[in-house]
Amino acid sequence: MDVLIKIKDREGVIHELQAPTDMAMNVMELCKAYELPVEGTCGGMAMCASCQCYVLNDVALPEMGDEEEAMLSEAFYVKSNSRLGCQIPITVELEGLELELAPEY
């Protein structure tokens, strides 16, 4: 089953992405699969913040882990709604999620 996730890129263009829930993907991998400009330098280990995004709507996300919180405390352009895309697994609960990519460093 796929869920719809909307992602606003750094130019303000909104991309409506069909995200498979049965492939153990995360938001960073989804962005890369659709060729959105997300580096994912650390490979999804919450160690680089190059997949930082802003959550724009109220969709239940998994709790932020210690590693993600520590990385965001050192990252640039962090807002109260910042999350690392690599730490958000694609699940059916994400249906309708709206995100915006954080600026590049």
Topology:
Blueprint: E1 2-8, E2 14-20, H1 27-33, E3 52-55, H2 66-74, E4 82-84, E5 98-101
Parallel strand pairs: 1-5
Antiparallel strand pairs: 1-2, 3-4, 3-5
Query: How many H/I helices?
Result: 2
Mean pLDDT value? 96
Widest sheet: strand order? Answer: 2-1-5-3-4
Kindly report how far apart the N and C termini lie. 35 Å
Radius of gyration from the alpha-carbon trace, in angstroms:
12 Å
Q: What does this molecule look like?
A:
With 105 residues, the protein is an alpha+beta fold. It has one domain: Beta-grasp domain (Ubiquitin-like (UB roll), Roll). The protein has helices spanning 27-33, 66-74, and strands at residues 2-8, 14-20, 52-55, 82-84, 98-101. Strand 1 (2-8) and strand 2 (14-20) form a beta hairpin. The longest helix has 9 residues, at 66-74. One of its GO terms (molecular function) is 2 iron, 2 sulfur cluster binding. This is 2Fe-2S ferredoxin. Keywords: 2Fe-2S, Iron, Iron-sulfur, Metal-binding. InterPro entries: 2Fe-2S_ferredoxin-like_sf, Adrenodoxin-like, Beta-grasp_dom_sf.
Distinctive features:
105 residues, alpha+beta, Ubiquitin-like (UB roll), five-stranded mixed beta sheet, 24% strand, Beta-grasp_dom_sf, Adrenodoxin-like, 2 iron, 2 sulfur cluster binding, 2Fe-2S ferredoxin, 2Fe-2S_ferredoxin-like_sf
